[in-house]
Amino acid sequence: MSSISASSLAGALLRQEVLDLHAYHVPDSSGYIKLDAMENPYLVPPALRAEIAEAVADAAINRYPDPVASSLKKQIRAATALPQGMELLLGNGSDELIQLLALALNKPGATLLSVEPSFVMYRMIAIFTGMRYVGVPLKSDPGSEDFSLDLSAMLAAIHREQPALVFLAYPNNPTGNLFPAEDVARIISASPGLVVLDEAYYAFAGDSFIRHLASYPNLLVMRTFSKLGMAGLRLGFLAGSAAWLMELEKLRLPYNVGVLTQAVAAKLLEHHEVLLHQAEQIRQDREKLFQQLRGIAGVRVYPSEANFLLFRVANAAGVFNGLKQRGVLIKNLHGSHPALQDCLRVTVGTPDENEQFIQALQGSMHNI
Ligand code: PMP
What we know:
CATH architecture of the largest domain: 3-Layer(aba) Sandwich
Distance between the termini: 55 Å
Shape: globular
Bound molecules: 4'-deoxy-4'-aminopyridoxal-5'-phosphate
Number of strands: 13
């Protein structure tokens, strides 16, 4: 055994799907104006931070967390206006819940279907849990409205592939658009399997399917608190009928939401209005940023109902590097999907960060 190197041993023992994957890449952002990861740019006011400090100081970190997080769930239920009869399942971020769903529905040959381009973890998790993955392209031909849902292609793919699990990000990442609710309803009705609406960006959007949960036996809504100022806490949830969540609960690892996450999220949700106010500010600043981007020659910006904007330039790599040289980090999507050629994505920051981004962008566009 000792004559074999660790890398050849790993190569021989690991599943091929794992060897073929690339790890989710997170670039080093230290020192940059960080507009790459759809985070909320604001901390909460000092008085609330002091309350949080007290809650953290009192937290029983010598004990395992409340395994069912009953008090936090009660607060989430109230904050989301969860309809009567619907239940919650909490995750260590919503990424964990995507994985849990894939593990639960992963019968031999089962398919996970989504649209493309969309959140990359749907595909990654399908692959590493051994599910078949099918991506249905969004409309991206020059003649059609970019990144809109191709409803007939979706319905045909659902009919053909009979997916066990469908993920739709509502609004979509990285395109920012909110698919028409009637089309989403048609997709849910036409799906033989479970449909999960991923409402990660609900706080910045004009619609949600939470209130329709009782209308569809095959619908779950997933949300995260990451975009609402709690990315560092890692907290997401699935909402839906007890029949689904009781079964999925069996796959949840016993203490997946830690003591500190429960304590801090509870404090923040006591002051939910502070977070909603920040989200409203971000929505307003998104509109301003949209208009500013629209006014720059050589930039095509796409409408967004999320806390980021997707835009296309002539040379994404050049503009991305120019921005970095000027101290601003955004996301270069070029190369991640053919429809995203020369596309960049910027998170809406504080008004000051947005202004610095616009100036850096103008500088970068002139110099390439
Ligand atoms: N869904 C979508 C559509 C996302 O964009 C993200 C984060 N970028 C997530 C889920 C995951 O969020 P988290 O794991 O932080 O809850």
